[in-house]
Write a sequence for this structure.
């Protein structure tokens, strides 16, 4: 965070709470997948009906690529979630989370005319919780908090210290 950016204590608190809540959700999703030996993204990818359906079919058609996608999905969720919770590399974690969630959305958006085999947990039209969470992460990209409340604070302090010593 730049020195000239200031938030009220309420703004900072709410942004940090939002960061931790989303981090917890992503970390938990990754851990649940990791601990389930039968989990695979194949079921989700088979449901793909929109712009990434061709890519999803390609991933499913090759078991080695599917294993790589599963590995990246699990460990991406875990790394993004952990980074957001502890405030380490928060900008990178938030941007990565936006991209990952947007990929999920582009695979299975709630659009008229698209019907899925797996039942949805709610009734959505265009906007669903995945898109909302991606946008919330984008808010955290625009209004970063890790360098104030999180391990990024120590990185910023170390950079300032080494900059002063270099002068």
């Amino acid at each position: 965070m730049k020195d000239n950016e200031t938030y009220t204590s309420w703004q900072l608190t709410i942004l940090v709470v939002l960061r931790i809540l989303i981090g917890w959700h992503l970390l938990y999703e990754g851990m649940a997948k990791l601990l389930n030996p039968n989990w695979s993204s194949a079921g989700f990818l088979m449901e793909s009906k929109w712009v990434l359906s061709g890519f999803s079919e390609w991933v499913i058609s090759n078991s080695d690529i599917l294993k790589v996608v599963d590995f990246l999905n699990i460990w991406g969720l875990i790394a993004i979630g952990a980074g957001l919770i502890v405030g380490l590399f928060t900008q990178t974690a938030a941007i990565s989370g936006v991209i990952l969630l947007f990929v999920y959305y582009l695979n299975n958006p709630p659009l008229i005319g698209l019907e899925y085999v797996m039942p949805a947990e709610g009734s959505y039209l265009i906007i669903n919780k995945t898109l909302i969470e991606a946008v919330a992460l984008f808010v955290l990209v625009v209004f970063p908090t890790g360098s104030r409340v999180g391990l990024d604070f120590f990185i910023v302090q170390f950079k300032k210290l080494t900059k002063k010593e270099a002068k």
